[in-house]
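Table S2 (continued). Query chain:
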Amino acid sequence: IDKLLIQSMNNDERVVSPVHQFVVPANNKSGWVRSVFVPNYDSNGEINGVIAVVSDVTDLLQKENALQSQSKFLQSLFDNMNTPFCYGELGIGNEIKIIQYNREFKNIIKASNRFIPEHLTIAIALPCLTDPQLQDLMAVALSGESILFEFFSTQSNKFYSAKAYSPELNKIALLLDDISEQKRATAQILETEANFRKLFEAIPIPLF
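Corresponding output:
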């Protein structure tokens, strides 16, 4: 504290101390305080002392710690989602710059790129998207309306169902769902139906 007082007076500057813990012996109460030291001037404009303001920041630190714990918990959930997810914002040239993505989405990016570029956009991460689909995603960021669409990734050889929505203006969240198995199952059913139809049409004798 003495060093901070001297620093404030000698350098004629406002000095903020680190957070310090305090303990009240009478009731064993403890907490945290932060001090601010500001030079005091006399009528001639000369420094004649230092004004110290001590603030109890215990509640603030507790709230910050709670928010950090919650943020780490949510980040852990985000990273361990089985569904590919990314969050981006509309930038210069109407490109959608990706701000954050989870591990599953990272795997999709790696399938399309040898390395993950620093300036990562939706178009780079998902080169399989068509221009109309990219335009639709930009419109979501501007309008706030959510959309659903499907696409096939030649890089990962998978079909995806995509849901895009905007949590706030110029921001976009993209959630992907691997629907490859459903697509293949549907294709097999259609192929089987087509084969039966051909077989039925090829039989000259009516079936009863």
